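**Fold in tokens:**
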Amino acid sequence: MKNALKCSLLSLGLLIAGNASAQLPTLASCTRSANLLACIDAEGNAYSVNTVGNTLYLRGFEKIGQRYWAQTNSRFGQLTFFTGVASDGEAWVGYTRRVGWTTINRFSSSGGSSAKFTCSRIVGC
């Protein structure tokens, strides 16, 4: 999968890690309200994250692929399931499981991509 899933997983990781309120100008320029985080990066990619209870709604635009995408994340304790779709018809599903300071992530997409990777607050992904 292209940058859409990477952006959505990274934004989810930032929210899980509790760092969404910190702005990193070299990565993206963000605006935040009580429930909404909206960002645009130096390459022109844009995304927003809206929180409603235990559900996150992500929407974005991928500059290189010129496509829009949307993803919904539903959290149940330490487990988060996500599904997404892009304007070119690609769809994806996956989950993130939090174990202490580590997240175990797995996804697959209709475009043929799939992966399992682990991220840590200390080491990264």
Observations:
- Strands lie at 28-32, 36-41, 46-52, 55-62, 67-76, 79-86, 91-99, 102-109, 114-120.
- Residues 10 and 77 are 19 Å apart (CA to CA).
- The first strand starts at residue 28 and ends at 32.
- The two ends are 17 Å apart (CA to CA).
